[in-house]
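Table S7 (text form). Paired inputs.
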Amino acid sequence: MTFEPVLIGFTCNWCSYRAADLAGTSRTKYPPNIRLVRLMCSGRLDPTFVLKALAEGADGVLITGCHPGECHYLEQNYKALRRYHLLRRTLQSLGIEAERVKLVWASASEGLQLAEAIRQFTEEIRALGPLRWNARPELRSEDAPLEAVP
């Protein structure tokens, strides 16, 4: 059985969410593995949202926003880019592949490009395999806590 990754996509309301909508209305197919979450701006994405998504079962997170220089909130996508790089370093320090988080720029008219980015990201995560961040090793009897001595 082929591993089917669970992906979360945080999308900018003004550009990439509309690109996803355009992909849908154009009947452009892309993997159903992704669940899109609309944000007003990619610059408003709190990195803890990404960590929470991964901790609660997502195998990868796609962050999408307006192209640099085209943000409706002036320079917030540059803020998203800085946070993205810090987030990738944080994941690496936690022993998680940085490739599980990806940043894509997509304007409202780029539905085909966004669909292709989602297809490509799905394949990249499929190749990495499941994250299993919450998988805990079974407690062996020799690892059991000692009984309190009265």
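Next pair, protein 2 of 2.
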Amino acid sequence: MPKVSEEFLLARREEIIDACATLYQTMSFKDITIKEIGKITSFNRTSIYNYFNTKEEIFLALMQREYMLWIDELKTLAEEHETMSKSDLADALARTLAKRERLLKLLSMNHFDMEENSRLENLVEFKKAYGNSLKAVKTCLDKFCPEMTEKDKQDFLYAYFPFIYGIYPYTVVTERQKEAMEEAGVGFVYHSVYEISRNFLKKLLENNETEGGAR
């Protein structure tokens, strides 16, 4: 059997992740299967098992890739600016999230089942990406908010990251959901990812500034 290069293996793995991403644009997590993913790859379905044991592992890899893309934007943000006001930082962070709709959609899913059905080595690689996203946001705080204490920064991260898990359902609402809310007497006002994120970030940073001044 001819030796396969690492580049070839990585390309195959990325093709599987790309196929999952394509299906996820129009299908739900529940309806996407390895069989469906295999239909739009250049190789047969059984070959997928050489790279991923379950569809949850494929989704975890997709989310890991989305985190890494976000991290790249956050690093660029920190590198390209010498100083930023809190208002400008809130605006810039919100814009990075507004570009990551797929990440926000994935974050709104049930992580427990996804992680429980993934091998430890895959989960470790995903957690590294997640951890690096925390570090990338903290780097922005270190550079642009030097007056914040380490506790302030940790408090910010523990408020910000749980918050982004819930953004997607508030910004993507189907006609059926709108109809149900109208019948239930729940008013729906559309806000974009950018608007929701920026408002939250401004309040979070301004609140920290107020509390910092009171210390």
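The chain is about 75% helix and 0% strand.
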